[in-house]
Amino acid sequence: MLDPVPAARPADGLAARCTRALLSPWSRLSLLVVVLLAAAVAMLLFEPQRLLTGGRPGRLSGGTIAVLLFGAAYGVCTVAFVPRPLLNVAAGALFGSQAGLAAALAGTVLGAGVSFALGRVLGQDALRTLLRGRWLKAADGQLSRHGFRSMLALRLFPGVPFAAANYCAAVSRMGYPAFLAATGLGSVPNTAAYVIAGSTAASPSSPVFLAAMAFIVLTGLGAAVVAWRRRHRLAE
Predict the structure, then answer these.
(1) pLDDT (tens digit, 9 = 90+) per residue, 15-39?
(2) 201 contacts: CB under 8 Å, gap ≥ 6
(3) Residue 192, by phi and psi: left (phi above 0), alpha (psi -120 to 50) or beta?
(4) Which residues contact 155 (CB under 8 A, 6 or more apart)?
(5) Does pTM surpass 0.90?
(6) What pLDDT, on the 0 to 100 scale, is given for residue 134?
(7) Could you tell me if 99 and 67 are in contact, meaning their C-beta atoms sit under 8 angstroms apart?
(8) Dihedral angle, C-alpha 20, 41, 191, 156, nearest 10 °
(9) Neighbour-count burial for 201-232, b at 16+ CB within 10 Å, e otherwise
(10) Is the Cβ–Cβ distance between 171 and 123 less than 8 Å?
(11) What is the pLDDT of residues 145-173, one digit of tens each?
């Protein structure tokens, strides 16, 4: 009795090869670069600084809906590399200190979460293969082992670009909940200072405005001093 002829294995067709190529780490990284460049170009064309120079639009006259819309727009802008100080000052100028702080913090966490997700899904596999420098490996190890406290320190001290911290954390192995919690808590002091400065900018000689500006300057100087004194910490 003749043995049955085994079924022929399907050939590795063009569709399968294209699928593997599109889902490869470097293809996903290229997609991330394209998405971020497109977002940056869109923000340059939109010119978000008009929120400061154009005054309070009538459709943003206040209310929960306006605050939520601004928070969502804030998050999108941070993904597109719009500087957070500009957005924080705009939040204070548009909505006052309390509602402006709520909108700015919500947008901060939203933008950080979206950036982290994009970096983790599209860029982590490819970028981790590039971690060959001593400083890069040390930073990756610090974020992977002590993610919450390391990210909390980065958010508390100004000077570290917001987007850079997001994508560095995404490349590391730190958890998503720890990243969001550290971002929310650590962003409160400086965000509040900029929002208060924006809400009181019409009275630059007021004690509240001067206190907010003094806090911004002092924290910036403090961060520079800490970075200078611990410049070899990651390399050890």
Answers:
(1) 555 555 555 555 666 666 776 777 6
(2) 89, 92, 93, 209
(3) alpha
(4) 165, 182, 183, 185, 186, 187
(5) no
(6) 56
(7) yes
(8) 50
(9) beeeeeeebeebbebbeebeeebeeeeeeeee
(10) yes
(11) 777 888 888 888 877 788 888 887 888 77
